[in-house]
Amino acid sequence: MHVAPVGGTAVQDHVALAEIELCGELIIAASTAREDRLSLESIDEVLRVAEERDAEGG
């Protein structure tokens, strides 16, 4: 088993952290949803897809 050394060697991958946060938000939304599966519209809402499109101008 390989264990990372203790100390200042931690690397922060901001893209990976953002993806983990979005996955967490999807898990929370799915666990509180009334239906069996989230609709595509619900997923877009959780991931704020419309906000990103508006910010990009498209």
Structure characterization notes:
The protein has 58 residues and is mostly helical. Helices cover 59% and strands 0% of the residues. The protein has 3 helices and no strands. The chain has helices at 14-32, 40-46, 49-56.
Give a quick set of tags describing it.
59% helix, flat, mainly alpha, 3 helices
What's the arrangement of secondary structure elements?
Layout: H1 14-32, H2 40-46, H3 49-56
Give a concise summary.
With 58 residues, the chain is mostly helical. It contains 3 helices and no strands.
Q: What's the SSE pattern?
A: HHH
Rg calculated over all Cα atoms? 17 Å
Distance between the termini: 48 Å
Q: Which sheet architecture does the biggest sheet show? A: none
Low-confidence stretches: none
- Mean pLDDT over the residues: 83
Share in helix: 55-70%
Secondary-structure content class: mainly alpha
Rough outline: flat
